[in-house]
Amino acid sequence: MIITAVAVGTRGDVNPLAELGEEMIERGHDFRILTHEAFKPLIEKKGVTFFKLDTDADHVMQYLVAEYKTSMDFMKGMFKLKKENPAFMEQTLSAIKGSDLVMYGTCSAFAYHAAEYLGIPCVRHFYSPMDPTRQYSLYSDEYDSDKVLKSYNGLPTGMNLMTMIALNKWRKSVGLPKWRIGSTYTEMNGRKLLTFYPTSRVMMKPDPAWGEHIHVTGYWYHPEEAEADYNEPEELKAFLEAGDKPIFVAFGKAESEELAELQVRTLKAVKNTGIRAVIQAEQISDADRVNTDRLYFIGAVPYSYIFKKVRAVVHHGGNTTNGLGLRAGLPTLVIPLALDQYFYGRMDNRIGAGPAPLYIRNGLCSVEEIENALKDLVSGIYDKGATDAGERIRREEGVKAAADAIEQYVTGD
């Protein structure tokens, strides 16, 4: 079986696909990923075939994360990326030709159209809820109600409108019918598309109304593999052994003036609390990046390694990072930039694994707000919730579950 995944996004979007690819290759299949050049080493390290999509990973981070405020910002970002690579459909067709299955996510739905043209079945994968349910939503702070279900109503319309603008000219050029407001991404040729949520059932309980084609599998990663190649710096080792367990603050690679200010405020808040901390924040100035007996600044580090050494974590709330922290049983404070991150921050709080998220979409949180949240984080009231979540997550085998479902979907066995 030949499977080609198409990914437009950050490392958090691509890495799970590489993990799944490694599993599929071990089962005797051929797995390929079409994505940004920046992720070629990550992909090829797993033995997966890399195909280049001419988009800039830093621009994806800028347009779809750092500059994100509203759904219109997301649409503008996608059209900026389209303009930067006018040949993206030709590259997609070339990459998926000969495949038995094509996988795509939220920002790579254009692959559906290339697959439809070539007559190749598709698989959808999302890192946050996209299929309507009463249980939870990106677009509502409530749970288990008809209001939650109704919050999904505008999603297919928005996706279809963007598709009509971006792809109907291409669809006409290859003889496909126009995409319409009433068109659907959930099936092809009358068959429901296999759909994956590579997250934990602790975060997203499956809705029985969805049907058997939708799977919440557990996370797609093998954290021990990332840790095995890491050489612990002696300075870091000395810091970790010199006092109480620190917290870990990780703000990823998204950059903007607002996020730089957030990192400055968070550093001030950490200092004010006196909490020991390992900090990964690239926009803090060199003058402020000074190691002390309370603070240690770090660059790249496998989260699976550092999460074993700390008492709690602070991050933006990406699906994989959030999952790794909970898997380690760590209380978690999320300071989200976008809807999916806010969703995971809310779910962490709902299961008793961390404080309510400090969402910065409508305004940057103050030093005092961050300080209070940090004190709450390490107060001990979230320890049991995080520990219980970790025990459940460690029992899940997300990569295996996804691979089994793919084989069954293609062969019908």
Task: Describe what this molecule looks like in 3D.
The protein has helices spanning 11-26, 40-45, 57-66, 71-84, 88-96, 110-118, 146-150, 154-173, 223-228, 234-241, 257-273, 303-306, 319-327, 339-350, 367-377, 383-395, 398-411, and strands at 2-6, 30-35, 49-52, 101-104, 122-125, 187-188, 191-192, 194-197, 214-216, 247-250, 277-280, 295-297, 312-315, 332-334. The chain has 413 residues and is an alpha/beta fold. It folds into 2 domains: 2-219 and 396-411, Rossmann fold (3-Layer(aba) Sandwich); 224-394, Glycogen Phosphorylase B (Rossmann fold). A 7-stranded parallel beta sheet has the order 3-2-1-4-5-8-9, with helices on both faces. Helix 3 (57-66) runs antiparallel to helix 4 (71-84). The chain is globular. The mean pLDDT is 91.
Question: What secondary-structure arrangement, pairings included, does this model have?
Answer:
Layout: E1 2-6, H1 11-26, E2 30-35, H2 40-45, E3 49-52, H3 57-66, H4 71-84, H5 88-96, E4 101-104, H6 110-118, E5 122-125, H7 146-150, H8 154-173, E6 187-188, E7 191-192, E8 194-197, E9 214-216, H9 223-228, H10 234-241, E10 247-250, H11 257-273, E11 277-280, E12 295-297, H12 303-306, E13 312-315, H13 319-327, E14 332-334, H14 339-350, H15 367-377, H16 383-395, H17 398-411
Parallel strand pairs: 1-2, 1-4, 2-3, 4-5, 5-8, 8-9, 10-11, 10-13, 11-12, 13-14
Antiparallel strand pairs: 6-7
Helix pairs in contact: 1-17, 3-4, 5-6, 11-15, 13-16
List keywords for this structure.
five-stranded parallel β-sheet, 2 domains, seven-stranded parallel β-sheet, Rossmann fold, alpha/beta, 413 residues
